Q: What sequence folds into this?
């Protein structure tokens, strides 16, 4: 991250979100996240200006992992949208 200095990270699934949560206090909710439903309920899926321990700052969005997408994406909720349109809306919020 220090070399690339990303502006946006598309986080694909809960395991990468848990790893990233160990690198920034701004992602503390992701560390204890048990489900996408809870994440969506408390509006923690889109994170702006997250500051990491190495001073890198960027936006993140937590999306369904592609391998689980067919069985899980229908559960996603964001900004009045459901399923695939919800995840598209999440990404649009950060462009």
A:
């Amino acid at each position: 991250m220090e070399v690339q200095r990303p502006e946006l990270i598309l986080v694909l699934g809960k395991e990468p979100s848990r790893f990233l949560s160990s690198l920034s206090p701004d992602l503390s909710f992701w560390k204890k996240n048990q489900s996408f439903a809870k994440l969506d309920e408390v509006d923690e899926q889109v994170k702006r200006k997250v500051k990491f321990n190495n001073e890198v700052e960027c936006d993140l969005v937590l999306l369904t992992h592609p391998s689980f997408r067919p069985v899980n994406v229908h559960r996603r909720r964001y900004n009045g949208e459901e399923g695939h349109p919800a995840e598209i809306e999440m990404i649009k919020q950060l462009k």
Observations:
- Strands lie at 8-12, 46-51, 57-63, 77-78, 81-82.
- The chain has a mean pLDDT of 93.
- DSSP finds five helices and five strands in the chain.
- The two ends are 19 Å apart (CA to CA).
